[in-house]
Amino acid sequence: MSVSEFPRTGAARLALAACGAAFVLLAWTLVRALRPAPLPAPPAVAVAGIETMGRGAVRPPANIQAAIENDLFASDRSAPPSPYRMPGEKESNGEPAAEPMKPSVLGTAVATDGRNFATLQLGDASPMLVHVGDKIGEWVVKGIARGKVVLVSGGSRAELTVSKPGT
User: Fold this and answer.
1) In the chain, what are the domain boundaries?
2) Phi, psi of 144 (to 5 degrees)
């Protein structure tokens, strides 16, 4: 069989048809791969009217003159009668808060791994074993050292030592 007779055979025609189909499939795949996917629709945009843009912000005008007259750095200024309180914070009546009852230190233990603990007793209650961060009554344990415990309550700080037996 010569080269000129090959395209006339049935097998050659079938092979040429398969190559043509493969070429069409390749072209279709390339077009689909290179064509970008359609973008999703953009969200709806609400456009403000001319009236709302012209009105401006709704807030009271600043009283600049009052700010100048109440000079922050004036020498005759004095502190307000009561300190500023955060919303929900209890108001004080001017008297200093009574310091809560301090517990007595019955003993301390200092560990090499930093897990120190102490035995404290608050009033007539049963003794408690506490670690740093624990709370006993109104006090929070801030530190434990050999024979000493540091407690904090509100703005008060107390450094307590081990009480001697019989005292």
Assistant:
1) 104-161
2) -135, 125
Q: In what order do the strands lie in the sheet with 148-153?
A: 135-136, 139-145, 148-153, 156-161
C-alpha pair distances (Å), 6 with each of 10, 14, 20, 36: 9, 12, 17, 43
Question: Pairing state of beta strands 156-161 and 148-153?
Answer: antiparallel
Tell me which CATH code domain 104-161 carries.
Answer: 2.30.30
Q: Could you write out the DSSP letters of every residue in 114-153? A: S--EEEEE-TTSPPEEE-TT-EETTEEEEEEETTEEEEEE
Instruction: Take residue 35 and report the two structure tokens written for it.
Output: 């064509």
**Model-level pTM greater than 0.90?**
no
Burial code (b: 16+ CB inside 10 Å, e: under 16) for 22-57 equals eeeeeeeeeeeeeeeeeeeeeeeeeeeeeeeeeeee
pLDDT, residue 57, reads 58
pLDDT class of 145 with cuts at 50, 70, 90:
very high
Query: For residue 93, what pLDDT band results from cuts at 50, 70 and 90?
Result: low
Q: How far apart are CA 117 and CA 144, in angstroms?
A: 7
